[in-house]
Amino acid sequence: MNMDLDEAIKGRRSIRVFKSDDIPVEHIESVLEAATFAPSAKNGQQWRFTILRDEAKDKFTDWFMDHLLSMRKKHGDTFMGSAIPSCEIMNEAPVSIIVWNTNEFGWLTEHQSVAAAIQNMLLKAYSLGIGSLWIGDIFYAERRIPGYFNKSWALAAAVVLGWPAENPGPRPRLSVDEVAEFL
After folding, report:
1. Do the beta carbons of residue 127 and residue 8 sit within 8 Å?
2. Which residue in 63, 87, 96, 165 has a CA-CA distance of 20 to 30 Å to 157?
3. How many CA atoms lie within 13 A of 119 on its CB side?
4. Is the pLDDT of residue 3 over 90?
5. pLDDT at 169 over 70
6. pLDDT band, very low/low/confident/very high, at 86 (cuts 50, 70, 90)
7. Which residues are paired to 134 by β-bridges?
């Protein structure tokens, strides 16, 4: 699909319901390649990715759900927010990508660089007709997930990919006048 940039920016949606069909590896690689073209602090290219599919994804989401359920038992439903539904979405989507930040210098701009890479991923996925969701609820296990994967990097987010089984409309957006101040 060849898509205008404005169409991609304004048309992309967070998808929470997916078909079970697999995403071809070439499409996943294309999404990851788009991430690598994001700007980065001092060209550090701080992003790293762990791609989970099939049994590896199922094993991880089972582990993550067990962690979330133990937290809910300890802290209650209010504390958990949308974490359990987010884990269920990760389980349903054919691909879950754990996004890391090598965080070499500990700079805020390294975090911003990884966020820019994630935005490129979401836009590229949308241009391929793939639904995506940027998941921040992964931080309910922020200290445990690096150990699960034996990584020394900082956890940045999770992104799920799949063929969308929903077509949500646009969400309300603030106007430029509401968010910008020209001096």
Report:
1. yes
2. 165
3. 13
4. no
5. yes
6. very high
7. 159
Which pLDDT tens digit goes with each residue over 5-28?
Answer: 999 999 999 999 999 999 999 999
Contact between 156 and 9 (Cβ < 8 Å): no
Q: Which position has the token pair 């958990």?
A: 80
Pairing between strand 154-162 and 131-135? antiparallel
Helix H or strand E segment including 99: strand 95-101
Sole residue written with tokens 């937290």: 71
pLDDT of residue 105: 82
Closest CA to 138 of 68, 71, 70, 73: 68
pTM, entire model = 0.95
State both tokens at 69. 């359920």
Taking the domains of the chain in order of start, what are their residue ranges? 13-165
**Contact call for residues 158 and 98 (beta carbons, < 8 A):** yes
